[in-house]
Amino acid sequence: MKVLVTLNIPSVGISLMEAAGLEVEVWKEVQPLTPGQLSQKAKSCKGLLCTAMDRIDAAFIQENLHLEIISQYGAGYDNIDVGAATDAGMVVGNAPEAMSNATADIAFMLMLAASRKLCYLHKSIINGQWGYFQPQAHLGQELKGKTLGIYGLGRIGLEMAKRCVGAYDMSIIYCNRGHNTAAETLLGAQKVDFHTLLSSSDVLSVHCALTEETKGIFGKQAFEQMKPSAIFVNTARGPIHQEDHLIAALKSGEIWGAGLDVSDPEPMKTDNPLLSMENVVVTPHIGSATGEARDQMALLSAQNIVQYFMGKSVTHRVN
Questions:
Q1: What span, in angstroms and rounded, lies between the C-alpha atoms of 60 and 86?
Q2: Catalytic residue among 116, 155, 237, 294
Q3: In terms of Cα–Cα distance, which of 262, 308, 264 is closest to 285?
């Protein structure tokens, strides 16, 4: 059985598959496979270990009906047409537990950095603009006792909430389809509707999946309902917020600041106004970028494939 790995993931995942007797082909170039290259290389494989960079749509699946399992190197799988894969009899898996701590750390960092205008002030030093002390210049805001609102309180959101309660004794509200009883019991989190989440959050942190329901949900109307002192944080997917509306809300003072690890499109263009705003911090989608998280992502995504070809139940199956 041959497996195509579409990027050069950590060797622990490759070794796991090879130890199980699978033949593994790894695309080791920095530039991702084009759709044509991906489809061509997949033709000789029964398994595919892919990343969010790969578009696994219905057309790709129809061209590669011989594939038996698709395993995503990551938690989110909005790049995969799961319905089409299911109809074709393909198993789809992911690595949902690998990056919770790493991504929560980034969300916490973005919140704190935005609250004190960290990146803008760092650049001001580089530009020779560290001048005289001004008592009312470059003022940030403190987070102690504020309210953290979480849109999509799952594994990552829970880790973010734990950090905020532990460090700043923040109150937690959240908007989910269902209740997160663990967060309610452990942290006193309160489930609220979307309007209340927007109007009551001092920091609003996004941790949901990208779906038709969540795409663009943070747009003009949402930002208008937020506090003028609010900080918006998104470490999930760029299309969940509408970037032009976010820029307008920041410029007009409808919200106070933003911390973003994701954008739409990615990579972000260098002339994007967000990059020059005093109260905005942007990182290049590095939520999972720790050695520990990336190794665990490799292990879990490879484990899905090994389990499948050994005839076992796939632990992290999404269809």
A1: 13
A2: 237
A3: 262
Among 201, 203, 198, 161, CA closest to 182: 161
Residue 97, pLDDT > 90, answer no
pLDDT of residue 13: 98
pTM of this prediction? 0.94
Q: Based on the fold, state whether residues 188 and 234 are members of the same structural domain.
A: yes
- Residues 207, 285, 294, 316: which is the catalytic one? 285
Contacts of 219 (CB under 8 A, 6+ apart): 241, 242, 245
**For 211-233, what is each residue's pLDDT tens digit?**
999 999 999 999 999 999 999 99
Name the domain count of the chain.
Answer: 2
285 is a catalytic site residue: yes
Q: Residue 50 is part of which domain span?
A: 2-98+291-309
Check which CATH number belongs to the domain holding 61 and give it: 3.40.50.720
**Active-site residue flag, 266:** yes
Q: Are strands 2-5 and 23-26 parallel, antiparallel or unpaired?
A: parallel
* Percentage, residues of the chain above pLDDT 90: 100
Helices 100-115 and 155-168: angle between axes, nearest 10 degrees? 50
Is 317 part of any domain?
no
Catalytic, out of 122, 179, 266, 292? 266
Report the 10 Å Cβ neighbour count for 311.
Answer: 6
